[in-house]
Write a structure and sequence with these properties.
alpha+beta; Elongation Factor Tu (Ef-tu), domain 3; Alpha-Beta Plaits; 6-stranded mixed beta sheet; 5-stranded antiparallel beta sheet; 19 helices; 21% strand; globular; EFG_II
């Protein structure tokens, strides 16, 4: 029969009494025995009521997300790992291997025997450590029940892993166990803020608090930038506020100053438009400001740089020993998306190629990885078709930025052959005059793609083609000198004793020449030798030749980019809004005010609720949720998730050039340009020059009210 309310209350009281007796008994036992678990709770006692992070347990156990738990026994707080047993039985006090997400048994087992246990004395293995399971808990709502052992298939909490696990791990009694893949979250961290303590003396507490926050929240990223700033990267405005509150009140417990949110942008180029801003076909109207505009364009390009009508930029190094011609073209959207999705695979390719180039002994390349690389190559060949992309996939020299980004560097000149696909086939060492300096070209490309000319943001969807790389005789001798330097060490040493200090490249050239002269036994007059040496020294006064190539390549890429129509790309959220019919108009008003775009609107069956799907720029999302709730009296609630990068259609550098544009936009064309607004905001934040007029015609300003 069902229990009455009185019987339910009576049983609850009995259960509470038994639980209190058990707690008192276990507390007394802990005080008398002074267990290690007590010490660990004291060490981490002040870390706040933490959200312990996912571990995966075993036998093998998968950790999903962390739980904040308050230990009633000593009223202190520590991390509890949330885990699931996949095989075997987990016992309290058991010694076990902790395998990180990057642990690879294939690399580690040659150091260990497959039969070894966590109690043995083991060598140091990357991404693997040993620990003792101090406490096992049954998670009963907000209560914790102590357990001695847990069989397979159960979910449990594990105490004492905060020093061994960052976000997730696999626990196993065998080192041969492959780790579970780390958890993937739909929300990508995109909004970043810089954090610093109000009192500089509190910096150690802030650093410790950020480490704890990083461990507690599976979706946050904590990093230190090159500028020394401590940065939090979060999924959105609400998540950011939650992380800052946790940092202040639970983890760091100090007052902090937070910068304005840093919104990332990307820079790209597009094909020249066919119609102008008033939808007139370009080239058919009477141009008014052409002279003025072309003068401005000429002023942008310094002397010594040639730009032809097709956008090919030709530059020489400062010492005039090498000349580069670079062209920039936009990549198809499918290729950009493909490169973004496969960035990890491209990074693996780069590591394999580096080890092949350096003749390192590498273990056998995984067949699955090779198949994925072949599949990527086939997809690129399918998407890069047409006359201008002929053989483009085989001519890929590098990806960028950071050698794994969504930009491509191609070579299209004679006498050189090197490919990113060398891990797929037999590699032939290319011996040419370009071999010693090709890394300088790649480094210049990496620098150019890392910070574009508009507002120093990374590039996206751009292909740079090196169509010409000429080296003068001295440049070639610099190359051959470095090739022969191994054979000429004795001659170099002798020369260095007799001569004044000079650049390393010049010494190698002279020693190489002397070596050739000695082989041919052709005497040369000292005047000729000193004259030649003076020429090389003069050529080398601009610094190492490789450094000049890096700087020249970077500048050539930037000018090639400026020769094409430039655009900004904004990060976009997908926005899902549930609203009733009466507030639909207000929802659309808020979206259009914030540059949002509605994709779909459908009614939920059986209700009067509409589901609206839209995209919204991340830069416009701050305060969006509050505003939409305010305007709709709480009847509409948005859900924002990072989706993709989207090009902003307006040109940030646009000025009116035709009569129609003058009539429509006015002489100054000072109507709001969204792309220019974003660009200037980023330039201001980075301390770059911003072209804006604060006051115009100051002498004409006057008060319009009458004097009494």
């Amino acid at each position: 029969r069902p229990l009455t309310q009185e019987e339910i209350a009576h049983r609850r009281e009995l259960a509470k009494r038994r639980h209190a007796e058990k707690l008192a008994a276990s507390q007394g036992k802990e005080m008398s025995d002074k267990l290690p678990s007590e010490n660990s709770s004291e060490v981490t006692g002040d870390t706040g009521d933490t959200k312990g992070e996912g571990q995966q347990l075993t036998g093998q156990a998968e950790i999903v997300t962390s739980k904040a738990v308050q230990q009633e026994a000593d009223n202190k707080e520590s991390f509890i790992a949330f885990a699931r047993v996949f095989s075997g039985v987990v016992q309290r006090g058991q010694k076990i291997f902790v395998l990180g997400p990057k642990y690879d048994p294939a690399e580690s087992l040659h150091k260990l025997s497959s039969q070894c246990s966590a109690t043995d004395d083991l060598p140091l293995v990357p991404h693997m450590t040993c620990c003792t399971l101090e406490n096992l808990y049954l998670l009963m709502g907000r209560e914790l029940e102590d357990l001695q052992e847990v069989p397979a298939g159960n979910v449990l909490g594990i105490g004492g892993l905060q020093d061994f696990v960052l976000k997730s791990a696999t626990l196993s009694t065998s080192p041969a166990c492959p780790p579970f893949t780390p958890l993937n979250f739909e929300a990508t961290p995109i909004v970043r803020v810089a954090v610093e303590p109000k009192h500089p003396s509190d910096m150690p507490q802030l650093v410790r608090g950020m480490k704890l926050l990083n461990q507690a929240d599976p979706c946050v990223q904590v990093l230190i930038q090159e500028t020394g700033e401590h940065v939090l990267v979060t999924a959105g405005e609400v998540h950011l506020q939650r992380c800052l509150d946790d940092l202040k009140e639970r983890f760091a417990k100090v007052q902090i100053s937070v910068s304005a949110p840093i919104i990332p942008f990307r820079e790209t180029i597009t094909r020249p438009p066919k119609v102008d801003m008033v939808n007139e076909e370009i080239g058919k109207q009477q141009k008014v400001a052409v002279i003025h505009q072309t003068k401005e364009d000429q002023n942008k390009i310094p002397e010594g740089i040639q730009v032809d009508s097709g956008g090919l930029v030709t530059m020489s190094t400062p010492n005039k020993q090498a000349t580069l011609s670079v062209r920039a073209t936009p990549l198809p959207e499918e290729v950009t998306r493909l490169l973004e999705e496969n960035s990890d695979l491209i990074r693996t390719m780069e590591q394999l190629n580096t080890s092949l180039n350096e003749d390192k002994e590498t273990h056998e390349i995984n067949q699955k990885t090779l198949d994925r690389i072949k599949e990527l190559k086939q997809k690129l060949e399918q998407n890069l078709q047409g006359r201008k992309w002929r053989n483009a996939v085989d001519q890929i020299w590098s990806f960028g930025p950071r050698k794994c980004g969504p930009n491509i560097l191609l070579y299209n000149f004679e006498g050189y052959k090197r490919s990113v696909w060398q891990c797929l086939g037999s590699t032939v060492k290319e011996v040419s005059k370009y071999r010693d300096f090709d890394n300088s070209i790649v480094s210049g490309f990496q620098l150019a793609t890392l910070s574009g000319p508009m507002c120093e943001e990374p590039l996206m969807g751009v292909c740079f083609t090196v169509e010409k790389w000429e080296m003068n005789k001295i440049g070639e001798m610099l190359s051959t000198g470095s090739q022969d330097s191994g054979e000429c060490d004795a001659i170099e040493d002798k020369q260095n004793e007799d001569s004044t200090p000079a650049g390393s490249c010049a010494d190698e050239v002279c020693s190489a020449n002397e070596h050739q002269d000695n082989n041919q036994s052709v005497p040369k007059s000292p005047e000729k030798i000193s004259k030649h040496k003076g020429e090389v020294l003069r050529a080398d006064c601009y610094g190492p030749f490789s450094g000049q190539l890096i700087a020249t390549m970077k500048e050539a890429c930037r000018y090639a980019l400026q020769a094409k129509p430039q655009r900004l790309m904004a990060a976009m959220y997908t926005c899902e809004i549930m609203a009733t019919a009466e507030v639909l108009g207000r929802v659309y008003a808020v979206l259009s005010k914030r540059e949002g775009r509605v994709l779909q609107e459908e009614m939920k069956e059986g209700t009067d609720v509409f589901i609206i799907k839209a995209v919204l720029p991340v830069a416009e999302s701050f305060g969006f949720a509050d505003e939409i709730r305010k305007r709709t009296s709480g009847l509409a609630s948005p859900q924002l998730v990072f989706s993709h990068w989207e090009m902003i259609s307006s040109d940030p550098f646009w000025v009116p050039t035709t009569e129609e544009e003058y009539l429509h936009f006015g002489e100054k064309a000072d109507s709001e340009n969204q792309a220019r607004k974003y660009m200037n905001a980023v330039r201001k934040r980075k301390g770059l020059y911003v072209e804006e007029k604060i006051v115009e015609h100051a002498e004409k300003q006057r008060t319009l009210s009458r004097n009494k």
